[in-house]
Write a structure and sequence with these properties.
The complex is a heterodimer of chains A (334) and B (192). Helices cover 26% and strands 32% of the residues of chain A. With 334 residues, chain A is α+β, with helices and mostly antiparallel strands. The longest helix of chain A is centred in the N-terminal third of the chain and has 24 residues, at 80-103. Chain B has 192 residues and is mainly alpha-helical. Chain B is 77% helix and 0% strand. Chain B contains nine helices and no strands. Classes of the chains: A alpha+beta (334), B mainly alpha (192). Chain A binds chain B through residues 12-23, 27, 30-31, 39-40, 43-44, 46-48, 50-52, 54-55, 58, 61-62, 64-65, 68-69, 72-74, 77, 293, and chain B through 15, 17, 21, 24, 28-34, 37-38, 40, 46, 49-50, 53-54, 57-58, 70-71, 74-75, 78, 81-82, 85-86, 89, 92, 96, 109-117.
């Protein structure tokens, strides 16, 4: 039998003006399998009449929703030309793999090299012929032999995260600016941009051995970060939360207690922008923060709230060829 | 159907996060406020909005661009609303039983239109109890544990557990009586 409730009961109930028996009636009405259409229509009508003039902001809820659907949320909407670059790189990768399977017996090792590069603002996941997986961050490039015959040696400029497949007989070696990283099977992040003073290695799992200038070596344990100053050859070791350092591959821009100058460099690469520093005196100020899916303007606004700086976004105008240049930001002292 | 909305839905189907954000901005507040009014619980209302929009995103390919988005949203939300209503219903029934114990028969609360008010008052008074007393009371009356279990959990005798219950009930009765003196919760006697 279809359950009915009085006409005025629901509005009264919504205002909080109801008895226990009203509650029971509404409960039964709501769960009556024969009256679902009426329940839907009646409540839908009431929802559309709901007054929201007193409802506060729900931004916090949207942030929660974003976090929950993070996995299916597109990592970052890249401009079309980045996609084109990524597709091209993938094509190169596929070609190299095919090459590996068809021609590996005839060619001596180390003869042909494959090179991957990612434009600023982009990221790329890669798989090497030995099934080592990893990610290349924006503005980075990786060079590796099409065939990993005897040794597995690659060259890196910029930042990458490696998940090296285990081969007891053959070490995996990354040659990065000023530093060589020797690996058996492990996960680690390495940042070695020519434009930075430091080469940084953070170890998540396993074991790596670093070799620097003049035969300097060091074994790392998981959770360690080594910052190697290329000019002086100084090596600084600290304990860190290693996962923070590869969060970039999931779309997080993490700035972890670094001087403003280094933070701005990172932001510059992340957003493919030009950041000009008009006043060097604030550059030693240290900064910490994590950003996800924020537009450049928002990140700058937040940085300017923490650090004593002001910024100015230079208006972009097409040049004579009709080409729009990189975004340009000028940083000044506040 | 307004063209702007049709455009948003087309974009949503293509995975455009800006369109999703815009739809959230348009429809989340009414859904939230309605859920809050219907369920009387902020946490539940937040859950409803979250569950609904996550499902919309996950099933964005199935969103029709030629129907009413709000009706579609509500169909998804209604299932969540029903689920939460039934869950909260249990705790309402438990509180009703406590109130029946507290208030004498002439004040039987089953037809009083201020059930929500009395329930909120009950929660407020429970929160005002000293810590141990509140713990014992909640375990016994709201979670339905026996005196024996409570005594074991809290590491004292059943006698002292019983003592806390008696004191708690006395306290609640006194607080409700104060409200009656103020005439707040007995108005129904005259209008019935």
């Amino acid at each position: 039998m279809k359950k009915d409730i009085g006409k005025d009961m629901l509005p009264r109930f919504l205002k909080g003006n109801y008895s226990f028996n009203d509650h029971v009636r509404i409960r039964d009405w709501l769960n009556d399998p024969h009256g679902q259409q009426a329940v839907h229509d009646e409540l839908f009508h009431l929802m559309k009449e709901t007054d929201t003039s007193e409802t506060g902001s729900l931004d916090y809820l949207f942030q929660r929703i974003k976090r929950q659907i993070n996995k299916s949320w597109p990592a970052r909407r890249l401009p079309l030309f980045y996609w084109k670059a990524a597709v091209m790189v993938l094509a190169v990768l596929l070609a190299s793999t095919v090459f590996y399977f068809t021609a590996s017996r005839d060619l001596p090792a180390g003869q042909s090299w494959v090179s991957l590069s990612v434009p600023e603002g982009g990221r790329l996941e890669f798989i090497l012929p030995d099934s080592t997986r990893g990610w290349l961050n924006g503005g980075a490039s990786l060079r590796y032999p099409a065939i990993f015959a005897h040794s597995r040696e690659v060259e890196l400029e910029g930042e990458a995260f490696f998940h090296v497949s285990r081969h007891l007989q053959r070490n995996f070696i990354v040659h990065a600016a000023g530093l060589n990283v020797k690996v058996t099977g492990t996960m680690f992040n390495i940042s070695a941009y020519e434009s930075d003073k430091l080469t940084e290695v953070v170890l998540n799992e396993g074991e790596v051995e670093l070799t620097g200038k003049e035969g300097l070596t060091r074994k790392m344990v998981p959770g360690e970060k080594v910052s190697y100053e290329r000019l002086s050859g100084n090596m600084e070791v600290s304990k860190v939360d290693a996962s923070q350092y590869n969060a970039w591959k999931d779309g997080y821009l993490v700035i972890d207690n670094v001087p403003l100058a280094a933070a701005l460099k990172k932001i510059e690469r992340w957003y493919h922008a030009d950041i000009e520093i008009a006043d060097e005196s604030v550059m030693e100020y240290r900064l910490r923060g994590t950003f996800h899916e924020e537009p450049l303007e928002e990140v700058l606004r937040l940085v300017a709230m923490i650090a004593p700086i002001r910024y100015e976004l230079v208006k972009r105008e097409p040049d004579q060829q009709g080409k729009v240049n990189k975004r340009k930001v000028i940083i000044m002292k506040r | 159907m307004i063209p702007v909305e049709q455009r948003l839905l087309t974009d949503l189907r293509e995975g455009d996060q800006k369109a999703f954000e815009e739809l959230f901005a348009r429809y989340s507040r009414q859904l939230f406020q309605f859920s809050l009014n219907f369920l009387k619980s902020k946490e539940a209302a937040e859950d409803i909005v979250q569950e609904t929009f996550v499902r919309i995103w996950d099933n964005r390919m199935q969103v029709r661009t030629d129907g009413s988005f709000q009706a579609y949203l509500f169909t998804i939300a209604l299932n969540a609303i029903r689920k939460h209503f039934n869950r909260l219903s249990k705790s309402k029934e438990i509180r009703f039983n406590v109130l029946t114990d507290l208030l004498d028969e002439t004040a039987a609360p089953d037809e009083r239109n201020d059930f929500q008010f009395v329930m909120d008052k009950l929660d407020e008074f429970i929160a005002a109890m000293p810590e141990t007393r509140r713990a014992v009371f909640v375990k016994k009356k709201l979670e339905g544990k026996s005196l024996r279990e409570i005594a074991d959990e809290m590491n004292f005798t059943t006698k002292s557990a019983e003592y806390h219950i008696t004191q708690a009930m006395k306290f609640l009765k006194a607080e409700f009586e104060k409200l009656q003196i103020k005439g707040i919760i007995f108005y129904y006697l005259f209008i019935r």
